[in-house]
Amino acid sequence: MWRCPKCKRIFEKAKQPHSCKKVPLEKHFEKKDKAKEIFNHLVNQINQRVGTTKTISIPCCIHLFGNYDFLAALPKKDKLEIRFSLDRKIDNPRIKISVPMSSKVYKNCLDLKNPREIDKELIDWLKKSYYLKAK
User: Fold this and answer.
1) What is the pLDDT of residue 73?
2) Please, which residues have CB within 8 angstroms of residue 63's CB and are 6 or more apart in sequence?
3) In this predicted structure, what is the pLDDT of residue 72?
4) Is 92 among the domain residues?
5) Total domain count, the chain
6) Is 50 inside a domain boundary?
7) According to the model, what pLDDT value does residue 22 have?
8) Is the N or the C terminus of the chain less surrounded, counting Cβ atoms within 10 Å?
9) Is the pLDDT of residue 11 over 80?
């Protein structure tokens, strides 16, 4: 594991290309009140039911970290797109795409349109993602 000396983010590879630039979290939610409501509920549920998170807001999206970067959130006008890694492809209608990132890791993407969609099934997936790198 490698920690960037400038931004302190943790990466799997030394000197991995990335942006150290941070933007205010609120910038992602300008004119996106629904996404902000969903995001706040998601973070609250993860912190209560999975583990403590740290939020890092960079120009492209918002990252949630436990011990590692485990979730990216992309606020849209009326929804929140989330991306998280697992050691398997999720075959579920909620998942809009599941792509291999390596022979052992898949990036799974879904849209949340309502805080009620943050249910046990999703929390279970996120818990596995949160602890995936700890194995």
Assistant:
1) 98
2) 9, 55, 56, 57, 69, 71, 72, 73
3) 96
4) yes
5) 1
6) yes
7) 83
8) C
9) no
- Size of the chain, expressed as the number of residues it contains: 135
The CA radius of gyration of the chain, in Å to the nearest whole number, is: 14
Q: How far apart are CA 88 and CA 103, in angstroms?
A: 10
Centroid of chain to Cα 107: 10
Region 105-110: mean pLDDT is: 96
Cα–Cα distance, 92 to 1 (Å, whole number): 32
Q: Which amino acid is at 92?
A: N
75, 93 in Cβ contact below 8 A? no
Written as six digits, the tokens of 101 are 């990132």
Distance CA 65, CA 3 (A): 13
Would you state the pLDDT for residue 134?
Answer: 53
More confident residue, 22 or 130: 130
77 domain residue, yes or no:
yes
For the chain, what is the mean pLDDT?
A: 91
For Cα atoms 32, 36, 42, give the angle at the middle one, nearest 5 degrees.
145
- DSSP classification of residue 39: H
Question: Contact at 8 Å (CB) between 83 and 71?
Answer: yes
Low-confidence winner among 42-51, 65-74, 118-127 (lowest mean pLDDT): 65-74
> Would you say residue 56 lies in a domain?
yes
